[in-house]
Amino acid sequence: MPELSRGAPSVGASPLDAHFFGWKRFVATTAVVLAILFFPFTPSDRQRDNTNLPFLLVCVPALLLTLSAVFHWATRRRLGSAQTLLVSLAVASIAGIVLVMGTWAVRTLLHVPPPPGRPVTYAIAIRFGVTFGLFMCAIWALAFMYPYATEDARRRALEAEKLKLEADRLRTAGELARLRAQLEPHFLLNTLNAIAGLVTQDPGEARRLLACLGDLLRDALHDADEMQTLGEEIAWLRRYAEILESRHRGTLRFQWDIADRAAQVLMPRLLLQPLVENAVKHGALRRHGGGQVVVRATLRETGDGAPRRLVCTVEDNGPGMPAKPLRSGAFGLHAVRRRLELKYTDAGLQIDSSPDGTRCIVELPCVTTPPRPATRAIPEMA
């Protein structure tokens, strides 16, 4: 039976269940139509001729099957809703006329007399056939077409939502890649400038730091994964700090306070590097008598049953941030904040600055598996 399973009882039903449900709906619809046609709603209806019952037992299922076949044909041809409706109405009218005329011919061949006082003419038969066909088309549309159209609209909405979320995900991934592509050359140029000052003063140290820079670049560019553990981030920052301390020997020092239990927490790759760079360039190096940068990382217990949080702090003892940050520093802070926004829904960057120094605090969820980009969940589809 074509397309009787289109109006599935529920999303995710098996093809066998849907097919069985379609047959049940077909039988139920046929029974309802026959009940409407033969139920005695008024006293005069009890006296009406019921000799048409055998013919209607054939005509009603036949017309429902015909409409289902038409709908199956229309969906395969990808006709629009209006075209499908017009074709269904036309076929229902023609099929109704054919069935009524066929019933009349069979009654004549079997010498079944017409109902008393109700002479049958071609005009009456055609008019009744059209009315019967349109009536059956309306019943069929309510029983089969409406459930299918509702389900199809829901599926289309889910598919549109899925495509929108996929576009959001790709846009998020593209922006993350763009931020990282901007950040890595920015870091490389600043580091090369730091080493350039040692080429004439201490060539041996410059060669050692160039080798160290090679290790940094290999670690930064070898793996395209956006996430790494805090332990890997800190190990990378220590080598970066070694270059900076050597370049500014006697005027810059680093201090590290990293909780061991936080080492396996995942975070975006090189997230803290712009904060360390800003702390050195716009903070510690502006401190007369020598500057210091302190990098801390710990796990904060929420105490309310919620997951723990990773808190990373980069602090310097410089003169504080100006009212309008320099463009290079502003780019680094913007990159950190934007990467957090794109990767998490509950992470943030807080900056506290005073004449005694600047503290940048990054807080993010404590997870050990890579988080999904910060978008809504895609609804389940059958």
TrEMBL record:
Pfam families named among the record's database cross-references: HATPase_c, His_kinase
InterPro entries linked: Bact_2-comp_sensor_kinase (IPR050640), HATPase_C_sf (IPR036890), HATPase_dom (IPR003594), Sig_transdc_His_kin_internal (IPR010559)
Domain of life assignment: Bacteria
Family matches, as SMART domains: HATPase_c
Keywords linked to the UniProt accession: Kinase, Membrane, Transferase, Transmembrane, Transmembrane helix
GO molecular function: phosphorelay sensor kinase activity
GO cellular component terms, A-Z: membrane
Membrane-spanning ranges: 21-41, 53-73, 85-104, 124-146
Location of the Histidine kinase/HSP90-like ATPase domain: 263-368
Protein name (database record): Histidine kinase
Source organism of this protein record: Polyangium jinanense
